[in-house]
Design brief:
alpha/beta, 60s Ribosomal Protein L30, Chain: A, Alpha/beta knot, 2 domains, 6-stranded parallel beta sheet, 4-stranded mixed beta sheet, 34% helix, disordered N terminus
Length: 252
């Protein structure tokens, strides 16, 4: 079994130009940034430039939203620091490959709903997933709501943030790990695949599914049979079905 040490901390709201600058200098783990729309401030422009280099998700919102997030003098900039420390992709993969366990990774391609994200993390922890890979920009933040929805599972499973999902897939493939995308764009169901080998399952966003560029490079694609009138499942439910099929096959 592979053990990880997590620096557990409370999600923190950082606001105001100079506190934010100092937080970035101190290399705080920033999960998301909110910037007030329409502001013309060179210092905030410089902060945004630094955040873009870090591939931080930035939302430009009206004053009303900023004041809901923070009742103090935010000066047009609010950062949300993550309640966990992320691990690197290389560290995550190497640790699992060095263990005696058959690797099982989960890649989330732009999952945007915090509740879905938390529910997926809970299921991943319960099914023995070795690590979750997410993209730095575009996905749901790792926030207090994520911790709550995951029932604390987020502290028991390594999470890695990467610049691009495709690069992570190439790295996994180069490490001997089969990549399987969950998509309705295939006749093969998850029940027709052999899932006992090292693998990574890729789940797509709530609205668009796994992106076309990702689908073009994965090793395999798999779907779930849908027998009713509705032609799609909630992504967290679909993810649970995929992961428990892996558990079923590996427990034989």
């Amino acid at each position: 079994m592979v053990f990880y040490f997590y620096a557990m901390k409370k999600e923190t709201l950082l606001f105001g130009i100079y506190p934010v600058i100092e937080a970035l200098k101190a290399k705080q783990t920033i999960d998301k940034a909110y910037v007030q729309k329409g502001l013309q401030n060179p210092k905030i422009d410089a902060i945004v430039a630094d955040l873009e280099v870090l591939n931080t998700t930035i939302s430009y919102v009206p004053l009303e939203k900023m004041e809901k997030l923070c009742r103090s003098n935010h000066q047009g900039i609010i950062l949300i620091s993550s309640p966990i420390e992320f691990v690197t992709l290389e560290t995550m993969v190497e640790a699992v490959l060095e263990s005696e366990k058959t690797p099982l990774f989960l890649i989330l391609d732009q999952i945007s709903d915090v509740r879905n994200f938390g529910a997926i993390l809970r299921t991943a922890e319960c099914t023995g997933v070795d690590g979750v890979i997410i993209q730095k920009k575009g996905g749901a933040p790792v926030s207090g709501d994520t911790v709550k929805t995951s029932a604390g599972a987020i502290f028991n499973i390594p999470i890695c943030k990467v610049d691009h999902i495709k690069d992570a897939i190439y790295y996994l493939q180069g490490s001997g790990i089969t990549t399987i995308a969950a998509t309705e764009k295939t006749q093969d169901t998850i029940y027709n695949l052999e899932l006992k080998k090292p693998m990574a399952i890729i789940m797509g966003s709530e609205g668009l599914g796994v992106s076309k560029s990702v689908l073009s490079i994965v090793d395999k694609k798999a779907s779930l049979p849908l027998l009713g009138v509705i032609n799609s499942l909630n992504v967290s439910v679909a993810c649970g079905a995929f992961l428990y099929e892996v558990v079923r096959q590996r427990s034989k």
